[in-house]
Specification:
By secondary structure, this protein is an alpha+beta fold. It contains 4 helices and 6 strands; from the N terminus they run H-E-E-E-E-H-H-E-E-H. The protein has helices at 4-14, 65-73, 81-90, 111-132; strands at residues 22-28, 31-39, 45-52, 58-61, 94-95, 101-106. A 6-stranded antiparallel β-sheet has the order 1-2-3-4-6-5. A hairpin with a 2-residue loop joins strand 1 and strand 2 (31-39). Helix 3 (81-90) runs antiparallel to helix 4. The longest helix has 22 residues, at 111-132. The radius of gyration is 15 Å and the shape is globular.
Length: 134
């Protein structure tokens, strides 16, 4: 179920990260969960979804995990929605209308930095939420 060429790309990508402790679990053909060893301010592990697209690009998504986590553990995400979108935009990531952070059509050469930036963005948004929502 795991795409060997994607595995090779991911292994090469992880070597470039400052902290290479990452694991991947296939959830569907061409879709994976990327688990990092980073935790957010709620002491929850940071993870996101990676999807291989038919055109050879990749998409990253949190599937509204951040919104749900903030709403469940901290308070109303809508109170920081605009600031969260601004933080995401600094990393080249979109907060869509459904509350999902996404980075779509990532090329193979940019996958390593896109994944690293996605992880950092998720951490920064949760850090901001923990300090500003209550």
């Amino acid at each position: 179920m795991f795409n060997d060429s994607l595995l090779n790309i991911l292994q090469a990508s992880w070597k470039k990260w400052d902290n290479p402790s990452v694991s991947v679990k296939a959830v569907n053909p061409n879709e994976y969960i990327v688990f990092t060893d980073q935790t957010n301010d709620l002491n929850e592990g940071i993870y996101f979804y990676l999807k291989t697209n038919s055109d050879g690009t990749y998409s990253l998504s949190d599937r509204v995990l951040i919104v749900n986590s903030v709403n469940r553990e901290i308070g109303d995400f809508n109170a920081i929605k605009h600031e969260a979108a601004r933080i995401a935009a600094q990393y080249g990531i979109l907060l869509n209308n459904q509350g999902e952070f996404v980075n779509e059509e990532v090329g193979q050469l940019n996958l390593s930095s896109a994944m690293y930036n996605f992880e950092r963005m998720l951490y920064d948004v949760m850090d901001y939420a923990a300090r500003n929502v209550r």
